[in-house]
Amino acid sequence: LGVLLGTITVLLAWLAARLACPGDEAVATASAAFVAFLPMHLAVTAAVSNEPLAYAVSAAIACARQLGIL
Prior knowledge:
By secondary structure, the chain is mainly α. Helix content is 80%, strand content 0%. The chain has helices at 2-20, 25-36, 39-46, 51-67. It starts with a helix and ends with a helix.
């Protein structure tokens, strides 16, 4: 479950960057790669804990803020 939530976090990071810089795909790709290859992100999502859920919720809130929902 942690790996799935880690993947969702990376996708939401890509979406947040895409919303922040709508004309620049490179920024979105770079931000997703940055999140995906952070050593601590990899370690936390590989272990059993509640932190991947917190990461995914935080990324979802960032996307919602970009869309003006929150």
